Amino acid sequence: MVICTHPLASNEALHVLREGGNAADAALAAAVTQTVVEPHMTSLTGCLCFLYYDAERGDVTYCNGNVDHPMAATPGFHAGDLETGRGVAVPGFWAGFQAAHGRHGALPRRRVMDGAIRYARDGFETHPFLWGEIFAQNEKIGRTAEGREIYMPTRAVPRPGEMLFQRRAADTLERLAEEGNEFFYRGAFAEELVNKVAAAGGVLTRADMEAYEARWMMPARSTYRDYETVGSPPPDSGGTHIVEMLNMIELLDLERLGPPTENPETLFQLAQIVGHVFTEGAKQRDPRSYPVPLERIVSKDYARMRFELLQMSNATTEADPSSLPRATAVPQPGSTQVTVADAQGNVCTILHSSLSLPWSNGLFAGGVSVCAAGAHYLRVMPKPGDRITAYVAPNMVLANGKPILASGSPSVGLLPAIIQNTINLLDFGLDIEASVHQPRFGGFDYKAGFLDAQQTMIEADIAASVREAAARRGIAWSVVNPWNWFHGSFEGIRVDPDTGEMTACGDPRRTAQAMAL
Predict the structure, then answer these.
(1) What does the alpha-carbon distance between residue 356 and residue 335 come to, in Å, rounded to a whole number?
(2) Among 158, 173, 203, which residue terminates a domain?
(3) Are residues 164 and 154 in the same domain?
(4) pLDDT tens digits for 29-42?
């Protein structure tokens, strides 16, 4: 089974499984295809973060293919720099892809990349979501001849349903299939990328590219009720945040309280826990330079202390929901998730992303967008040469050592999306379709780049009486439409531990589709 945010990519993963590929092959095939069919959400110049359960070995490994800050400092960095070369970081996607495939893949790399190359060279129909993003960012895309060549070949943005061709990207992908890291980090692609970034005021160098390496790391681990929890470790801290949140949620009597869509106390407590862990996570940096006490962070004692302190700090005066500030519309930042489970019991879940708004700087190299991953500097500024801290959250829940749930999500609201679906499945007995369709809270607004302003979104189909009762405890809700885009896309696969039956459901908040073989 495979689930991701684009049906063409899900279908490519299915073809790979049909031809004998494993979960790693299929997930990587979907991910690289998404760089072509969802270029507004992800890019070869972004990140690829890979969590894998190996059924034969019975263990979980994690590959951090996130971006590095260049070795030159960027003093005074601000949101406006994202529109220039100063917002360009050292890409990690390709190194993560090659490392993950090299360790866990079964099919040849070229076969895994065939779908991406084909859609780049032969084209695909522009779907409405992609068209909308091209339309919204056409001023930036159209700054360069390369951008116009791809997205405005007739001097205008293609209409929905028209074919989109990315032939330079196809050439780049073909060379990557043959030459790999040598081409991307030490060869012609690196040369073109560095030159274009420098011309736009950036500090990325050939030395930065040559020094980049994907990192194999031990995942963060804990338990939740009778299950084992596993997630991406710092500086890809989102998986760790999921573990931390579940440690605190475990202290709630959810059986008595009921779900957050029905009980304002549950809604308030979950919002408090998610907000607290997210805010505290912004203090962490790359463990290579700054000690991050992972064992303490995921411990039950620490969770209890934090939980008790949160109860002490709960609001004691009511806030008038009508007086709270309102959200404003903002552009849609990009990222994507893909999850695959194969017939042998291997399970893979990958977050990959442009780490910013689509086409923030209008730069292209080798036919692919040069993403402004420096958006994450605005949350936690890394030391020059260090990896960014990002709350990407590939995670798994295991029973008796085997995954029963693997998931992740794109979007700024990915952490609460994962948490709400996880407890829906484990605590409230919902099937995965009912869970994905439930109303959510947890997206947030921001201005001028990243996290300059924050307010918690809540979908309008959570009853007004429930959300207003929680708001009177002091939460600033911004009521938004049902199935709101900022509440992520739960790319989860549930595996029945007794029968082995797999279930997944495409999230209607994006363009996701699950497929099975």
Answers:
(1) 8
(2) 158
(3) no
(4) 999 999 999 999 99
